[in-house]
């Protein structure tokens, strides 16, 4: 097998494409021939030693992938050789083969392509957990999505519309706002050229959004929170801007608002049955055509560094996916 190996987590440039022994699965594990793997923001942080997950060195990055089960370890009965699966394992995806825990593999129904499957679990599970579970978003409510043109943002637009909410998509350029409109957003805000707080007020008649979905953080957080509706729910999804904001607690008091943490990984570990039910609903929604990953582009697995560079340029709309021949 071949894989991108991180022997020293000092950044993308330190990754090397190496030939490694093809591993055999232990009990409860499977070997997956990787067909596609998506690039997510944590995949950048982990090779910079900035992510909360710090795997022992050396490791193969790539949190999310899809492929074909190639070999079974002892005791594995829920999967079979030749079965298509997707997995969100944290590491291992940027290569040709990987060993995965069988319990973490999502069996794919017929008609679910590997490229879509590799770009599915992280963004849709996060957005479903955020909007449906944590925020209890209801039909007719208004949700503001920051960073709406990115992977999680685009999934949040689709899930919010599936629930029946009104969506205001906020992004950094007019081009990205047009992209969000194409995904079903009802209104958009270009916070690269508009005052975010004033634009929110204008689009909500001064009431503010019932739910704010924030995977960006940084300087956008406080003006967005100041515009939130009474009893609003502010979803802390991530910090793509790099800066973790510090919100004045008096704002939550004055608005009767909630600051709600969103950690799908923690949810999946602490409440595995509820997480499995959410994933099953998402797979069903995919089959019904209600949600579908937006693929910015696919690149050969050997061009991982070019994919990282594109992600760093903030030009990505949707998801970047690496593919093996």
Description:
The protein is 32% helix and 24% strand. The chain has 325 residues and is α/β, with parallel strands linked by helices. It has two domains: 2-120 and 293-323, Medium-chain alcohol dehydrogenases, catalytic domain (Quinone Oxidoreductase, Chain A, domain 1, Alpha-Beta Complex), CATH 3.90.180.10; 122-265, NAD(P)-binding Rossmann-like Domain (Rossmann fold, 3-Layer(aba) Sandwich). Strands 3, 4, 5, 6, 7, 14 and 15 form a seven-stranded mixed beta sheet that branches. A six-stranded parallel beta sheet has the order 10-9-8-11-12-13, sandwiched between helices. Strands 1-2 form a two-stranded antiparallel ribbon. The chain is globular. The mean pLDDT is 94.
How many individual domains?
2
Helix fraction bin: 25-40%
Query: Helix- and strand-based class?
Result: alpha/beta
Tell me the span between the first and last alpha carbons.
13 Å
The share of residues in extended strands comes to: 15-25%
Sheet having the most strands: 7 strands, mixed
